[in-house]
Amino acid sequence: MNEEQLNALWATLSRPRMAQYLEATGEDRERALQLYVWNARIGAEFHFCIQTCEVALRNRIGAILRAEFGDTWFREAAYLALIDDGRQADLDQAATRIRNRKQALTNDQVVATLSFGFWVGMLEPRYNPAIWAAHLRAAFPGLPDGRARTSVHQSAVSALTLRNRIFHHEPLISLDLSKTHSDISNLLSWLCPHTSDWVRGQDRVQTLLRQKP
Predict the structure, then answer these.
(1) Structure confidence by residue, pLDDT tens digits, 145-174
(2) Residue pair 185/192 in contact by the 8 Å Cβ criterion
(3) For residue 52, which phi and psi values (nearest 5 degrees)?
(4) What mean pLDDT is reported for the chain?
(5) How far, in Å, CA of 163 to CA of 175, rounded?
(6) Distance, CA of 195 to CA of 188 (rounded, Å)
(7) What residues make up the domain containing 188?
(8) Which of 16, 35, 45, 87 is 20 to 30 A off residue 6, Cα-Cα?
(9) 52 lies in a domain?
């Protein structure tokens, strides 16, 4: 890459955006760009396992809430009395989106519309006695003996945090991505070992991690 091309790219991307990449490469602009490209590729490669994890988690927790509170769990008084303001705001936002699409407020529509953050939030300690004391093993049949809701929540938070960083195009280069990948794999295996095996067969995250510039 010649100096003119390099300067043009730098003007487009901006030095503030590239600051972490420059710091990691000792102010070598070409290497910083290579790291920037790798950052985008590793984020894209993570998308498949995170997407599958999100879908599996929401479907499983949605099924538990439906079993515990009924088909319209999202508007049942017993459920609404449990949740915090954040979960209520998520439900209100989902209901607004569904109505704006002129669709019925059904279990399937609510489950599909709620954010990943909502489902991760449902694993917080406040829901342990009322929901997870009775349903943890049904929701996570692959959870090993000795592991509890805390382990599931921690892995789910790890997956959500990385997802949000990827979706906001943030640098991933300083993160322990191998550990996060393990957290996501564990969560999937606790939800469904067969699904976890399938994802592992398609997954190239570890290969790309070894190719980091």
Answers:
(1) 999 999 999 999 999 999 999 999 999 999
(2) no
(3) -65, -40
(4) 95
(5) 13
(6) 7
(7) 46-67+116-210
(8) 45
(9) yes
